[in-house]
Amino acid sequence: MLAYLIWQATYIVVIFFWRKERIRERSYNTAYLYLAEETNNKRGMLYSMCSALGPRYCKLLYMAWHFVYTIGSLLIGYPSFHYPTFSVVLIAIMLMVAAYNGATYYMDLFNRQLTPNTIVYHQQ
């Protein structure tokens, strides 16, 4: 946890204070911008949580969410190491989620690319 807290403190200083203007000027994408703010008319998955209390608390809520997510990820390590069945089930769930996300992405992509061509083909 000490290593994580050092990383988090460094992240806060660099992203929110030291390089804030450079990141905005060059339109760099950070995890915070991607998840918590609205960029290019796209809202990140934490946007509603962060905007619920207003922009003043958005960074604090993002960092708190990141900390809780890290704790949850670390807690999964213990049962994964000591109980092989838990580890196998966890990996199977991750593979199913990855396969679903990949399949959904490609179905949406092919649908957008093939639909205009298919319509033109059927009209001829």
Automatic annotation (TrEMBL):
**Signal peptide residue numbers:** none
Could you name the domain of life of the organism this protein comes from?
Eukaryota
Membrane topology recorded in Swiss-Prot or TrEMBL: Multi-pass membrane protein
Quote the subcellular location field of this record: Membrane
List, in alphabetical order, the Gene Ontology terms for molecular function in this entry: acyltransferase activity
**UniProt GO BP:** phosphatidylcholine biosynthetic process
What stretches pass through the bilayer? 60-78, 84-103
Annotated Gene Ontology cellular component terms? membrane
Q: Which keywords accompany this UniProt record?
A: Acyltransferase, Lipid biosynthesis, Lipid metabolism, Membrane, Phospholipid biosynthesis, Phospholipid metabolism, Transferase, Transmembrane, Transmembrane helix
What family does the entry list? Belongs to the GPC1 family.
Q: What is this protein called?
A: Glycerophosphocholine acyltransferase 1
Per the UniProt record, the source organism is: Geodia barretti
Q: What is the lineage of its organism?
A: Eukaryota, Metazoa, Porifera, Demospongiae, Heteroscleromorpha
